Each structure stands twice: as structure tokens, then as C-alpha cells.
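FOLDING PROBLEM:
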Amino acid sequence: MREYVRRRAASPPEWDDGAMALTYDEAVAIQREHEARLIDLTGVNAVGVKQTDSGLVLEVTVSPDAELPAELDAAELDGLPLKVVRGGYTLQ
């Protein structure tokens, strides 16, 4: 997990994580590296890179009635923040 250091400054506050943010292509490469293993976890029905207000995340959708797999109790995978959401995925 990245550590954020708040610099003392006038508003707005500046945040420095000491590293460059991941690009979309880097995030997708991390997704591809882990998606087969993640989708095989009980209750997982979708894995994908999403853009949020705070940056890119690897969003993993887990069925509402399934237990959360222990592997998803993590802040990130290979530097990409992990976001677990409860819901179902319907193929469009």
C-alpha cells in the first residue's frame, strides 16, 4: 500500500506518494496478470480496471450473498488499489 505524506502548506494541501501514478495500460497489465485467479474465487463475477475520483482501481465484483474471499482483503495488487463491490454482473 502506498504511504501518503502530507506536506505542510497553505491550502489546498499537497499529497506526495513518492511514486508516479500507474498509467491505464499498466493497470490493465496488472488486471490481466491476476484476473484468471481472481475470477476463479468463489463469489467473484467480474474484474476490471475502473477510473475513480482518486485514480485507477482494480474493481472486483463479488456476489452479495457470497463470503468475501480472504485474497480480496487487501488494499492493492501490485501497486493498483483494490476495490471490492457487492453485486451481480449481467452480460450485456
User: Anything to note?
Assistant: Strands lie at 5-7, 14-16, 44-52, 55-62, 76-77, 80-86. The radius of gyration is 15 Å. The first helix runs from residue 24 to 39. The longest strand covers residues 44-52.
